[in-house]
Amino acid sequence: MSDRLLSFEAIDNFRDFGGYAGAEGIVARGRLFRSGQLSRTTQADQAKLEALNLRWVVDLRRASERLKQPDRMPQGWQGQILFSDLGGDGLAPHIQFLKSGQLTENSGRGYMATTYARMPFEPSHVAMFKGYFGALLRNDGASLIHCAAGKDRTGLLASLVHRALGVHEDDIMADYLATNTAVNLEGRAEEMGQWLGKMTGHPVSRDAMVAFLGVDADFLHHAYRAIETQSGSYDAYVRQVLELDSKAIGMLRQGLSS
After folding, report:
1. Is-contact 111 93, C-beta < 8 A?
2. How far is 166 from 23, CA to CA, in rounded Å?
3. 3-state SS assignment for residue 18
4. What pLDDT does residue 210 have?
5. Cβ(64)–Cβ(41) under 8 Å?
């Protein structure tokens, strides 16, 4: 994990999710990156971003999130940012949930399970997922996917890419769960718990915040169970929802193999 994690001053959870064995060999390193939001990048961070030669940045956040905390890319950056304005411009669902003051360990896990079951089919997410796969098929440089924390929307999309590339299920899950070691959950749980307690007037336990801020294998399982229930299988989901045929998958695997 340590060799995948890139250290930035003000970008959380930034890491390379290539390097795993896939159907056509080892997935290339230095091509597939994932992270939290880029709204607080320092000058040093921007220099590091520039050195990665990113061609695409895929911002999975809602319009309201992007408006409040826009990405800060290096001056003169020539790449493209992909985003979607589908889904409305109100508060993001996770912020609405937090402001409800109902966060407990059980409610947090329940909320995340419901969210993951919904994500694979939300129009805004589907549009972004399709756009990202389209960018990968162009095979013209490195890409970065991110949301707010780089764990849920980003984690699901990274797992979909891994599955398309033929990465083993164990490696897919290990990469997904790496968020829990890449991020200082204990420190963030205390900070966020204090903020949430002041905002709602309700005390928030450490366990509740850790459950909400981290990732869990069961969360991702909920997404894939929803895919199997609604589409019949992952392969059917890829064909019907993401509109990728076997030729496109073959091109993707060849283009991203080292």
Report:
1. no
2. 5
3. coil
4. 80
5. no
Q: Which residues contact 246 (CB under 8 A, 6 or more apart)?
A: none
Element (H, E) at 74: none
- Express each pLDDT in 215-224 by its tens digit: 999 999 999 9
Contact 137, 252 (CB under 8 A): yes
Hey, what amino acid is at 118? R
Give the C-alpha separation, 246 to 39, whole Å. 37
Q: Which residues, 6 or more positions from 79, have their beta carbon under 8 angstroms from its beta carbon? A: 54, 55, 56, 57, 73, 141
Run of H or E residues at 128: helix 123-138
- β partners of residue 56: 80, 143
Quickly tell me which residue has 């972004």 as its tokens.
128
- Is the pTM higher than 0.90? The answer reads yes
What does the pLDDT look like over 100-153, one tens digit per residue?
667 788 888 888 999 999 999 999 999 999 999 999 999 999 999 999 999 999
Q: Closest Cα partner for 146 from 133, 136, 134, 156?
A: 156
Contact yes or no for 40/21 (Cβ under 8 A)? no
Instruction: Give the pLDDT of residue 1.
Output: 56
Please, are residues 48 and 10 in contact by the beta-carbon 8 Å criterion? no
How many whole angstroms separate alpha carbon 172 and alpha carbon 174? 6
* Residue 174, Ramachandran bin (φ over 0: left; ψ between -120 and 50: alpha; else beta): alpha
